[in-house]
Recover the amino acids of this structure.
């Protein structure tokens, strides 16, 4: 299995601030996202990824987000195992994002 591509929160924030339209999926549970998500991210809980796979594979790069970076990296590994390329893990998850005071919004 290949190494999972990673993106640091500072790089993600820079790209968002530059106006780049990114495909981001937050795989945390409902009770976690009620505290805020990265603006523009779509919420698909980790356990729903297999049944919602078509929502995952629509972009050449999809950044996966969770609380600490562990679950999102597992999702990237799962997709890689299926032969789906372009999955990128956000290193450190929302803990790292909040530590740099990245913007959040409440889920819609």
């Amino acid at each position: 299995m290949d190494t999972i591509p990673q993106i640091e929160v500072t790089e993600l924030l820079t790209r968002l601030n530059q106006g780049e339209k990114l495909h981001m999926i937050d795989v945390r549970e409902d009770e976690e996202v009620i505290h805020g998500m990265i603006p523009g991210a779509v919420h698909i809980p980790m356990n729903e990824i297999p049944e919602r796979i078509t929502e995952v594979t629509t972009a050449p790069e999809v950044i996966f987000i969770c609380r600490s970076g562990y679950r999102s990296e597992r999702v990237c590994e799962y997709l890689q195992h299926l032969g789906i390329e372009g999955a990128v893990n956000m290193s450190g998850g929302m803990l790292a994002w909040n530590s740099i005071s990245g913007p959040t919004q409440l889920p819609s």
Observations:
- The CA atoms of residues 21 and 44 lie 18 Å apart.
- Helices lie at 9-17, 30-33, 53-56, 70-81, 93-99.
- The chain has a mean pLDDT of 94.
- The longest strand covers residues 23-26.
